[in-house]
Design goal:
Layout lengths: L22 E5 L2 H15 L4 E6 L15 H8 L4 H8 L2 E3 L1 E5 L7 E5 L12 H11 L10 H7 L14 E3 L2 H14 L3 E4 L2 E7 L4 E7 L4 E3 L2 E4 L6 H6 L4 E3 L8 E7 L9 E5 L3 E7 L4 E7 L6 H9 L11 E4 L3 E3 L3 E2 L2 E3 L5 E2 L7 H14 L7 H27 L7 H7 L5 H13 L12 H10 L16 H20 L4 H10 L6
Parallel strand pairs: 1-2, 1-11, 2-7, 4-14, 11-20
Antiparallel strand pairs: 3-6, 4-5, 8-9, 9-10, 12-18, 13-16, 13-17, 14-15, 15-16, 18-21, 19-20
């Protein structure tokens, strides 16, 4: 539904932009809305009036159930009790993602959340491994990573001093309920209602109120658009254009289904490449989340449904439904007094579980630039950072598709032949020729993530840093063996993931 812009009924006074921000209105619930409300209420609950408007009539996308380690940081910033959170959301631990059939049919590798080996200040660990590989004294690259080895053996425990990096698999619907209770305890108010009109001056980029189906109006000073893919405020109302990236990322459809648990949960996500996309399998404590992401140009809905249902384990608990999307971003995620957070600001398929992270980063960035009065300089800096961040993640996702040896379907041949962004082309060439990875400041994926995926997809650098050649065979072998045996020793002492979950989530825990 197109929501009309009613500038005549909501004139913006000359001093509108100079008024202090006292009321924040969050339009939409779900993960994006309640993460936003939770962070705002925890931080500003005693200062701001925080209102969230959502309708039970409108569903959420709700397929993303896998996260990355930044969520652990987000919860710590909000003082959320982890045991209470995991128990409430039936969460399990995630140590990485297993990519199956991505490089070639039958090939598998894990992109883990850990650090592999030990770096030297001049060069990353991969250079020492490459030198050892050349000399015939190296084991598999993953043998030197604690998180990867623990994932393979389905083991986990919290280690002292943050000794293991991890994230979560969670029930997105239960997470929204958990955050709602958290937000309301910290002063946020929820209003049930369907938005039927957004009163705004489109030219000025200024929203004055939301009108609900019952005729009531919700006024505010700052509006957060968490309306999902439709972009009700930022797009339909303020007219901020959407930059389409479907020429780089072909997948434009997804289908999800829940199944009963038939085996103990593993501590990693499975990403299985198919004929025209890929399928996920995410184990929770009480069920398993399954889905397929595919290109409608290369596979129809019936074929996608058959591929999905033909691969799941256990009783099917829900009816699959198709979700359409366009990969890309808004040309601005903050305009006037409206900030788009979550799918309303941009969408990348969930291949590397980054969409909840982008919600979190949008919220944290808003808190860090939160205006006393709205200033264009804040808006410009927010938009610059948001664009830079999602663009870097976009390149990382494209990497998985483009660097492949698969040519068994038209889809994979098209992915392989992509005219990729220059920024990614440079990164691939740099690693292929020298083994180096240079990151932009605050880039999400660390050097080890790029190395794991590029090696996993089949790029073996032509050269390595000469510092690695300063070590003799005996010295290099001893260096690598000490790392590997240390990893093996730690992994052998970890409990099984399933046993740890039962004990950890059953302990009495304070409310978050």
């Amino acid at each position: 539904m197109h929501v009309p812009v009613d500038s005549a009924h909501a004139p913006v006074s000359h001093d509108a932009a100079s008024r202090p921000v006292k009321r924040v209105v969050v339009a939409g619930g779900g993960t994006a809305g309640w993460m936003t409300a939770a962070a705002l209420s925890k931080t500003f609950g005693g200062v701001l009036d925080i209102v969230l408007v959502e309708s039970e009539e409108i569903g959420t996308v709700g397929v993303g159930e896998a996260t990355i380690p930044t969520m652990v940081t987000f919860h710590r910033l909000l003082d959320i009790n982890e045991q209470a959170f995991m128990a409430a959301t039936n969460a399990t631990i995630k140590l990485g993602i297993a990519f199956e059939h991505w490089r070639s049919l039958g090939h598998r590798y894990i992109h883990s959340f850990g650090t592999t080996g030990k770096d030297h200040w001049t060069a990353g660990f991969q250079h020492f491994w490459l030198s050892a590989r050349q000399r015939g004294i190296a084991r598999d690259y993953g043998d030197y990573c604690l998180e990867l080895r623990a994932a393979e053996e389905s083991r986990f425990a919290h280690l002292p001093r943050g000794g293991m990096n991890y994230a979560f698999h969670l029930d997105a619907g239960l997470y929204a309920k958990f955050l709602r209770a958290f937000s309301e305890r910290h002063g946020a108010r929820r209003i049930e209602g369907r938005i039927v009109e957004v009163k705004a001056d489109r030219e000025a980029g200024w929203i004055s109120a939301l009108r609900l189906a019952d005729g009531s109006e919700i006024e505010g000073d700052l509006f957060i658009d968490c309306s999902g893919l439709r972009g009700l405020l930022i797009g339909d109302t303020l007219g901020v254009e959407y930059e389409d990236w479907s020429h780089w990322l072909f997948s434009d459809s997804a289908m999800a289904v829940q199944t009963a648990t038939v085996r103990p949960p593993i501590p990693y996500t499975r990403s299985v490449a198919g004929e025209a996309g890929w399928q996920w399998r995410i184990p929770l404590q009480h069920r398993v989340g399954n889905g397929i992401v595919f290109s409608s140009r290369h596979m129809d809905d019936d074929a996608a449904r058959a591929a999905l249902l033909g691969s799941v384990e256990g009783e099917v608990l829900t009816e699959p439904r198709v979700i359409r999307f366009r990969p890309g971003q808004r040309r601005a995620t903050w305009r006037g007094n409206c900030v788009a957070i979550g799918l309303s600001g941009g969408f990348l398929e969930p291949l590397e579980s980054t969409n909840i992270h982008l919600i979190q980063r949008g919220v944290i960035r808003l808190l860090q630039t939160f205006p006393h009065v709205i200033a264009q300089s804040d808006i410009d800096e927010y938009n610059r950072q948001a664009e830079e961040e999602i663009t870097q993640i976009r390149d990382f996702v494209i990497l998985h598709y483009h660097v492949t040896q698969r040519d068994d379907t038209a889809y994979w041949r098209a992915c392989r032949d992509l005219d990729i962004p220059q920024s990614l082309r440079h990164k691939i060439r740099l690693f292929a020729e020298t083994g180096r990875v240079f990151r932009h400041l605050n880039e999400l994926f660390a050097e080890n993530s790029w190395v794991q995926v590029m090696l996993g997809q089949g790029i073996v650098p032509e050269r390595h840093h000469p510092i690695a050649d300063s070590m003799s065979d005996a010295e290099l072998s001893d260096f690598l063996e000490r790392i590997r045996t240390g990893v093996d020793h730690t992994v052998s002492r970890l409990p099984s993931h399933a046993d740890y979950l039962r004990e950890y989530c059953a302990r009495p825990a304070a409310q978050a």
